[in-house]
Give the backbone structure.
Amino acid sequence: ACQGDALAKDLRVIGVDQRGVLYSDPLPDGARLTEGDLVDDAEALREALGIEHWAVLGHSFGARLALRYAAGHPDTVAKVIFDCPPWDHAHGMPYMFEAALPMLTELGQTEAIREARSIIADPPPLDYDTWLRRTAILDALGGRRNELYLERNDLIALVKKLVVERK
């Protein structure tokens, strides 16, 4: 949100919640989305708003969608901004979940712990299903989620220890 707020001072910013995420309506039980569906949603939005060319900003997993959108619709994209893109998702996710395990344990989040351990043991490719799994694990942290991203010496030490152990 901070990027959008800063950009909105000088530009028209359209914030988009992907289907089934944040403020959008939940998906029906059993509904499946592909990255292509989400890219198509962005194009349908552009068309509905009557925008000829636009700059696209993708944050985190949205950066992957922004790249796919720009590649599939180059005639409509003036610029692309990638904010914290998880290009090496399979490598980074296990480290994040290793750091999250103590908090998940404290919170008694047994299903999230099982999912996190599954991803740590066999990191899946980054796709929409993986992103949903990741989101569910992080959501299980509740108000403690930001502790993964803010500077904490105990987490920094844990990540350093894990890097040494994996070598």
